[in-house]
Every structure is written in C-alpha cells, then in structure tokens.
Specification:
The chain has helices at about 10-20, 40-65, 70-90, 130-135, 180-210, 225-230, 235-240, 255-285, 295-300, 345-355, 370-375, and strands at about 25-35, 95-100, 105-115, 120-125, 140-145, 150-160, 160-170, 215-220, 240-245, 290, 305-310, 320, 325-330, 340-345, 360-365, 380. It is an alpha+beta fold. It has 3 domains: about 15-130, Translation, Eukaryotic Peptide Chain Release Factor Subunit 1, Chain A (2-Layer Sandwich); about 140-270, 2-Layer Sandwich (Nucleotidyltransferase, domain 5), CATH 3.30.420.60; about 290-384, Ribosomal protein L30/S12 (60s Ribosomal Protein L30, Chain: A), CATH 3.30.1330. A hairpin with a 3-residue loop joins strand 5 (about 140-145) and strand 6. The longest helix is centred in the C-terminal third of the chain and has 33 residues, at about 255-285. The chain is elongated. Bound molecules: zinc ion. The site of zinc ion (ZN) has 8 residues, from loops.
Length: about 375
C-alpha cells in the first residue's frame, strides 16, 4: 500500500459540525481522557474535568470580552456538560470522550471514542474540531480476514472499535494417513477443498470490503497457508493489503485488534517518515510545500493546504478576524476585510481549525526532525 492520507472520516463523521458557526453564542468543546487504565474510578476523570472547567471559564471571561448575557449562556452549557458527565455518561469501554455544546443554537454532540484523547476544554465562537479530526484521520477502516483451513472470519475495525461480521465454515475432509494410492487421492481432494474454502473466504472479504467502503485489508493466517490464499486473493484486495499476522482462528477480538493496531502504527510511522523525508528537498526546491508561520498562514487563508504539518507542542500568539476568518501573525487590521483583528493565545491552534474546515489533513510530528527545523516548526503541502 502506497503513502496516502485517508481524509474522508473527518468530513463523513463531523460534517454538521464543520459548517457550524455560532456568531453570538459561545461553543464549549470538551476533550476528556476517560481511559480506564489511567482513571479506574469515575471520580478520577471527573476531578480533571472540574479543574479544566474553572480554568476555561476564567480564561473565557478574561479574554473574550463577554457581556453578562453571554456569560450566563456559557454557564448553561458548562453546567449541561458537567451534569451529563456525572449523571448520564457510562464509559462502556470508551477511552476518550468528545463533546460540543451550544444550547442557544441547539448544538449538542457527544462522541465517545475507543481511542484516547488529550484533555482540553475550550470556549470559543466555534467548535474546536482539530483534535477530533486528527484522531479519526489517523485510523483507516480495516477489513480483517482471519482464515484457517476450515473456517474464516470477517471483521471491521476503525479507531479502536472492532465488530465481528460473519463466519464462513466449510467442512474440509480430514487428511488420512493410510498411504498408497488412496492416500494420494485423499490428499488431492483435501487440498482442493481447502482451496475452495479460501476462495469462498476471499470472495466474501471482497464483497464485505466493497459494501462497507473500507480502506485497508489485514489478514490473519498461518504462515504455511498464506501462499494458497495469496494465489487466489482478488487483485483489488491485494492492492489494499496493509499487513498480515499469524493468529489462531478462535482468537478473541482484543487479540485481533492489537494485531491490527500494530499494523496501523507501522503504516503511520512509515507515512510520516516519507513525508518528512520529502519535505526538506521540496522546501529547498520551492515546490509544492511552504514552511514557516507566515507562509503557512497565508496558504491557509487562500485555502490551498492539503496537509498541515506541525511540530508537537508548537504554539505562538497571533490574531484572527472574527468577520471573515482570516488568521495572521501580527496584522492589526484584517488584510482581506479591514475589520480589526482580535488577539488569540495560540495561532497554531487556529491554523489547525482552519485546516480542518478546508478538509486538509493535519500531521503532528515529533520535535527535532531536521526538515521541520528547516521549515520553522510548521509547514504545509499545497493542493496547487
Ligand atoms: Zn477579515
């Protein structure tokens, strides 16, 4: 499978939120780590939330210039989120919880995730979607095919969520050991039956893959059986084969998920490495990439960004225009509509939000890569 970025989960899942702009009312965006291994008791993550709640309220009232009605409105939303957490929310295996609330505009979204999120509670004039989009776009929709000589299983996996689809059983004659002519005939019949069974499993996988519009295939099969499946696997599926592992056909879904996660992590690392390796030379040649805050913000304002690449933890203050959405590093008045620009604590966060709204992929990379030092901690691959 080549290097490509799967972007559609963002627009598919969060489509109504992408277009949401509340001009007069504030939106509360919550990302809460509710992972049971770190927070065994409900009270543990509730304590984190309540700390963030007070911080967010204080920051909003200080920096957003709110009037009394707006502050009251904000308290309604914070209260609603808080009550939902303590009275209604059940983890049921969720590791991350994402919520958006703007009661005045009838916005209320609860998105439990089987993958972790980084704690933050943001109050702003729009929902903050970048972390959710990044989290989802890191994952592909996997078709998982497990096959043995007599049985096959099909599963779907996306963002830590795994569901069993169907099981294909075949009665394959056991291989006898009398020897002689009879033995050779039985062995041939046995091989034929195994091949037919694998063909049936491969056809079922192809149907499942296409019906569900999945992105990638992972195959769990014994080493000695793989060459037989490899021979008859449909070319379309072969093209989408992301990885293979050896696991017993009766493995439980947790074991399967771990194997698929490992494949996905490896693909992600390879993609990131390939992107960073091409970034340096492309920047030097002045082709299809820009680097540095000023140029990246300009490309975002022109909606030309395909992939936004940001070093982990990079943050800068800046300015934004609430009238037209333009973001800038230092301008006092908006270069496109001449309205006064408002200061924002972190323009890099604003850049990510703008990127999500133009369907760009966002990639956060570890600090210290020479290409990112050359770019100035932030870069963008351009659409044209
Ligand atoms: Zn403007």
């Amino acid at each position: 499978m080549g290097v490509r970025f799967i972007q559609h989960p963002i627009s598919n899942i969060q489509h109504p939120l992408l277009g949401f702009t509340a001009s007069e009312h504030l939106v509360v965006s919550l990302y809460l780590d509710v992972d049971g291994s770190r927070f065994p008791r409900k009270g543990d993550y509730e304590a984190e939330f309540s700390f963030m709640l007070h911080e967010a309220r204080r920051t909003a009232s200080e920096s957003l210039n709110l009037n009394k009605a707006q502050l009251e409105q904000l308290d309604v939303d914070l209260q609603a989120v808080s009550e939902f957490l303590s009275l209604e929310f059940r983890r049921e295996g969720a590791r991350g919880l994402v919520m958006f609330s703007c009661r005045a505009e009838e916005l209320w979204r609860v998105v439990p995730l089987k993958v972790p999120v980084k704690n933050c509670l943001l109050v702003d004039w729009k929902p903050h979607l970048a972390q959710l989009a990044q989290t989802l776009s890191r994952h592909r929709r996997f078709c998982v095919l497990l096959a043995s000589k007599e049985t096959a299983r099909l599963l779907e996996q996306f963002a830590g969520e795994i569901t069993e689809n169907s099981e294909i059983f075949d009665t394959v004659l056991k291989h006898h050991s009398q020897g002689g002519w009879e033995q050779a005939k039985l062995q041939r019949r046995h091989q034929l039956q195994v091949r037919n069974h694998l063909k049936k499993a491969s056809d079922a996988a192809l149907n499942f893959f296409q019906a569900k519009s999945l992105d990638a295939l992972a195959v769990g099969i014994a080493e000695d059986l793989w060459p037989d499946l490899d021979k008859i696997l449909h070319p379309y599926l072969k093209d989408c084969l992301a990885g293979r592992f050896n696991l017993d056909i009766s493995a439980d879904t947790n074991e399967i998920r771990n194997k698929v996660d490992a494949i996905e992590t490896e693909i992600g690392a390879r993609e990131q490495e390939a992107l960073l390796a091409s970034l340096g030379p492309e920047l030097a040649a002045g082709r299809s990439y820009v680097g540095g805050l000023d140029d990246v913000l300009a490309a975002l304002n022109e909606r030309r960004v395909e992939i936004l690449i940001v070093e982990n933890g990079y943050s800068e203050p800046g300015r934004r225009c609430l009238a037209c959405g333009t973001i800038e590093y230092g301008e006092e008045s908006c270069p496109s509509c001449q309205e006064a620009m408002q200061p924002v604590g972190d323009i890099v966060e604003e850049a990510k939000e703008l990127a999500v709204r133009q369907d760009s992929a966002i990639m956060e990379v570890p600090t210290g890569h020479p290409s990112m030092a050359q770019a100035g901690k932030i870069a963008a691959k351009l659409r044209y």
